[in-house]
Amino acid sequence: MNRTRMFLWQLACMTLSIPAFSCPSTYPDKQAPEGRKITASNGCFANKLYMMNTTTTEKFVIAKLYIRPASTEEFRRALETLAILTRKEAGCIEYTWYPEPAEEGTFTLIEHYRDQAGLKYHFAQPYLAEFVKKMEGWKSKDLKVYFLSSEPDALKEDK
């Protein structure tokens, strides 16, 4: 599978795993335009479309990290610690990572935050700064980071 298709597949998997897009029987706090509640009887697809239109501030980060083979185990331990701390942040919905099976020393991180404030909070944490500093000694080449959001211009400063 080429890299573009892999990225799109990862994005699709991430999008389908968003809790707001699941289909519980009702959304008691959400009202349909006519004032009726959105329920599963209206169809799961309709619920997803409605929720996508009302949940527009979520932020996603996908990062590719390239680690020297000699540093892989130390990196894995530090990354797992970072993941545990990040998942405890109030603005973090999901933080997951996995090694790329086809590329030794390559790891993909997928991060999902409630909003811009949650993302900013994460970037301001001392444990993230410490991890980034250690990355300089572990990396084999520069990382790639992709910021995604469901609304246009969402990654700009909050208005």
UniProtKB/TrEMBL annotation:
One of its GO terms (molecular function) is monooxygenase activity. SUPFAM superfamilies: Dimeric alpha+beta barrel. Residues 59-147 form the ABM domain. Gene3D superfamilies: 3.30.70.100. The keyword GTP-binding does not apply. Residues 1-22 form the signal peptide. InterPro entries: ABM_dom (IPR007138), AI-2_Isomerase_LsrG (IPR050744), Dimeric_a/b-barrel (IPR011008). Pfam families: ABM (PF03992). Keywords: Monooxygenase, Oxidoreductase, Signal. This is Antibiotic biosynthesis monooxygenase.
